[in-house]
Design a protein that fits this description.
4-stranded antiparallel sheet; Outer membrane efflux proteins (OEP); 10 helices; transmembrane beta strand; transport; alpha+beta; 429 residues
């Protein structure tokens, strides 16, 4: 019974494995399969641990200490009075004590450090998102290579069937001795040529499928036809690239660092205390072991840092200007790429219009040539030549069709419209 269930379930698994995948599915699978994606969890865990350490600044700091000393001299009272004995301190002294310090107000330093940790996490995740987004280009190239070779192979297969049908007709004439044997040679040679081309296309498609399988981590055997996507061009094209978010997060991080520098200059208020056992205790004139304690409140403030903070803030400001220049350069390069891609799309659209007309004409010519071949008014070599011309026209049409879809998809990638639902962004909330 168990074997029967396995056999029944196996075809379902195979059917699922061979299900054609869409381009969007490939994008998502590639992101999930990318090894560096695990760095997002590591970044978040590191940030959480750092923030927990920072939060301990509000907790009392306790230290245990002990010491034993011998000193060459001690304080003495050199007064001689009748019937009065003035005690003196021993030269050997001992002390064991616990010391604590409790922050009352740290000038906002702890909160500023936690804000900086959040800013660093966002920058790290943004850098990883930029790295992940670049995978889309590899996926797109492999995906459309598979589609192009698949469709071109279908054209070759259709043309081969036409030639095989004509070959059967010519072979029938040869058997009836109405056609010479050499008439079949041109058709047979063209069929072999088509089969060689099919083999090359199949090899290229297998290589692209293997590349896509490595990227996605799934065994990809076929891909689904990609439909033309709507894209915005010109001034209406909104750019949502992850690099822009990275620049924004880097600017925010440096702004947070400026705030932290200001907080470091604020006065700090703290409580402190000490409790211990030693000889002497707090009574310096006693030569006995005794317990003791003391508590108090303190304030610390360094009003002069010789403009160190000001210079550090100037350095951060200069770095912000550098990031701003990087963003401006990046935006300019994106506009250049979009302009080039728009030109490529328009060119392919016009070429496709010409391809459609050319295919119609070549198909009509081939039909007329096929009729002449049947009537014996032309030889097979003339027919093969026209079939070749029709095949080239159809191959160009299919190639330009895939190239147009790929160009439009690349335009979406340049604009940042691909995989806008960020996995990392969701995790970091």
């Amino acid at each position: 019974m168990k074997k029967l269930l396995i056999l029944l379930f196996l075809p379902v698994q195979l059917a699922f494995a061979q299900q054609p995948v869409t381009l969007e599915e490939c994008y998502q699978l590639t992101r999930e399969n990318y090894p560096n994606l695990k760095k997002a969890e590591l970044f978040q865990e590191i940030s959480m641990l750092n923030k927990e350490n920072i939060s301990t600044n509000h907790l009392p700091q306790v230290s245990l200490n002990g010491q034993a000393t011998y000193q060459s001299d001690v304080t003495k009272v050199d007064i001689s009075m009748p019937n009065v004995s003035v005690p003196s301190v021993s030269k050997d002294q001992y002390k064991a004590y616990a010391e604590f310090r409790q922050s009352i107000w740290d000038g906002g330093l702890t909160a500023a450090n936690q804000q900086l940790e959040d800013a660093v996490l966002k920058s790290n995740l943004s850098e990883l998102e930029v790295e992940l987004y670049k995978l889309n280009e590899q996926v797109t190239q492999a995906f459309f290579t598979i589609l192009a070779m698949k469709q071109q192979n279908e054209v070759l297969e259709a043309q081969k069937k036409v030639l095989q049908e004509k070959l059967r007709m010519v072979q029938s004439g040869i058997r009836n001795q109405t056609v010479e044997k050499s008439a079949a040679f041109s058709i047979e040679a063209e069929i072999i040529t088509l089969e060689q081309n099919e083999l090359q296309l199949e090899t290229g498609k297998d290589a692209a499928l293997k590349m896509l399988s490595i990227l996605t981590g799934e065994e990809i055997t076929s891909v689904a036809e990609s439909k033309l996507q709507k894209t915005e061009t010109g001034d209406n094209a909104k750019i949502v690239r992850p690099e822009l978010q990275l620049f924004s997060n880097q600017m925010a991080q440096m702004e947070t660092q400026k705030n932290l520098l200001d907080k470091k200059r604020n006065p700090k208020m703290f409580g402190f205390g000490q409790a211990g056992y030693g000889k002497p205790g707090l009574n310096m004139l006693s030569d006995k072991f005794d317990t003791y304690y003391l508590v108090g409140v303190g304030v610390s403030w360094n009003p002069f840092d010789w403009k160190q903070t000001e210079r550090q803030k100037q350095v951060l400001q200069l770095r912000q200007e550098m990031v701003q220049q990087q963003e401006n350069t990046f935006s300019q390069n994106i506009q250049l790429l979009l302009a080039q891609q728009s030109g490529q799309i328009e060119k392919l659209k016009k070429m496709l219009e010409k391809d459609e007309k050319l295919v119609e004409l070549k198909t009509a010519i081939t039909k007329a040539t096929a009729s002449k071949l049947k009537n014996g008014t032309i030889n097979s070599a003339d027919f093969v030549r026209d079939v070749q011309a029709e095949t080239i026209a159809k191959l160009n049409r299919e190639l330009h069709d895939i190239q147009l879809k790929e160009a439009i998809e690349k335009q979406r990638i340049i604009q940042g419209k691909v995989a806008e639902a960020k996995v990392i962004s969701d995790q970091s909330q």
